Amino acid sequence: MKIDGGRALIRSLEAEGVEVMFGLPGGAILPVYDPIIDSSIRHILVRHEQGAGHMAEGYAHATGRPGVVMVTSGPAATNVVTPLCDAYLDSVPLVCITGQVPYAAIGTDAFQECDTTGITMSVTKHNFLVSEAADIPQVIHDAFHIATTGRPGPVLVDIPKDIVDPNNPNSALDWYEPTGHALPGYHPQLDGDPADVAAAVDLLLASERPVIYAGGGILKARAAESLREFAELTNIHVVTTLMARGAFPDDHALALGMPGMHGNYTAVTAMQEADLLIALGSRFDDRVTGKVDGFAPDAKIIHVDIDPAELGKVRLAQAAITGDAKRVIDQLIAELRRRGESGADTSAWKAKLSGWQERYPLTYEQSEPGELLKPQYVVEQLRDHSPEDTIMTSGVGQHQMFASQYWTFRHPYTWVNSGGLGTMGFSIPAAIGAKVGMPDRTVWSIDGDGCFQMTAQELVTASMEKIPIKVALLNNAYLGMVRQWQEMFYEERFSEVHLSHDLPDYVGWAKSMGCEALRVESPEEVAPAIEKANDINDRPVVLEFRTDPREKVFPMVASGQTNSEIMVHPSQDQPGAS
Hints:
Blueprint: E1 2-4, H1 5-15, E2 20-24, H2 30-36, E3 42-45, H3 49-63, E4 67-71, H4 75-79, H5 81-90, E5 94-100, H6 116-120, E6 126-129, H7 136-148, E7 154-160, E8 172-174, H8 194-206, E9 210-214, H9 217-220, H10 224-234, E10 238-240, E11 255-257, H11 265-273, E12 276-280, H12 286-289, E13 300-305, E14 319-322, H13 325-339, H14 347-359, H15 375-384, E15 391-394, H16 398-406, E16 415-416, H17 427-437, E17 443-448, H18 449-455, H19 458-464, E18 470-475, H20 480-489, H21 506-512, E19 516-520, H22 523-535, E20 541-546
Parallel strand pairs: 2-3, 2-4, 4-5, 5-7, 6-7, 9-10, 9-12, 10-11, 12-13, 13-14, 15-16, 15-17, 17-18, 18-20, 19-20
Antiparallel strand pairs: 1-8
Helix pairs in contact: 1-2, 1-7, 3-5, 3-17, 8-13, 10-13, 15-16, 15-22
């Protein structure tokens, strides 16, 4: 059956099970937008292409299915570079389709032409420039396979206009359904080598101070249940990185919480003083390790990762296992049971961990009457007055750290944030994508005023498309994390960091975009405002919380320091102080 390239593209997406895509039309991709009218795929029209990319990321985070983006050529393609890079660093499965000038015009500096595949080569898992309409079904089939297998990531497909234009003879093809993949060299290894698994178990049984270092790969592998089974079998405590929050329940007896630059004292110090780190789907990121030379100096390493390039990249492992996190964890469990073992005696270690937890809990000082709100208090109230399985997205900065610290994560796939790239403006579009993917769940976006001003226009998208997300805007009138660093390390020389509590008028702005909006300024108003927001499900809601700009995120490991030099809240005795 003859078909044109535009219809073949949409039919190919339907064949991959795509239910929703996020995009914005333009000249080079316009022929593909016509068949969308007759498609079963829901298209969500964004207000900026960056928003489309982050929405697709939020959708993928929440559902585990690949997010799909479609935009035109030139500036539209460059506008999705940030989400592509964000997805690449955080291993988020995306398929991004970009329009391109007609194939014969490539290289002539045609209107809205850019070298999209060249620009995105370093921030995608793979990309394609399609030269013939007949290749479209196979390329789309391959793109979804690459994006979702092995280490997930973004794949870009750049499509010249002439091969999707029904009025161009280059667009005609005989429709077919691809039956496989011819991808030489692409063979992700899913199962761990049995000898490596056995060596890992040997290390585990010999350890006295073990810690499970769970990274975002646990969630990508849908391995949360296996992680819990492994931890309970071995009775080993678990730290969950910023990208793994929710992979292990925070209220579990073996949970230590988040490690890293702003992790809690016990999680950071447990890793630092461990004699064995069982790294599962984690990559020894610099925000976790601090100064690498001084990180966990006495620890042997078991490192499990689907990407062999991560093994030995930062820290050499005594047992390095390439494989899918869930499958390898299940292999470790099976090997322990085959030996009739569960783990070593770590009773002394557990007592030490318990002592640290008691001495150095997360803490802050509540505001006095008439003072601005403390952001930690707002997060606690959101936690206590929202459904337990609420999905939370965050921007990047202080509010991101407060959200990860003070929310209690009991369920996987409920925390959506930008980790590796640290993209301000991520939260609101990501919340929209998450809500589209999980429409029956409450979705809160915790955002800062700096982040909010970058992508707030997507609240228009949420209003128009009837996507009732809820936004907790922590407005401290500053770029908060930058202010904290300038206060602590730049002698309080606050350079270009002050925004404004009153400009823009966030409540008025939100209302103009079709949202319900409310300003909250005192502690007694916080819980009622949150409960009101949770009861509104026919439009987006924005709550502006006026928060204290002097508040800092603690604990903290300063840049260039080792994790042994962690600073706790000023109200607590600093570790090592006499």
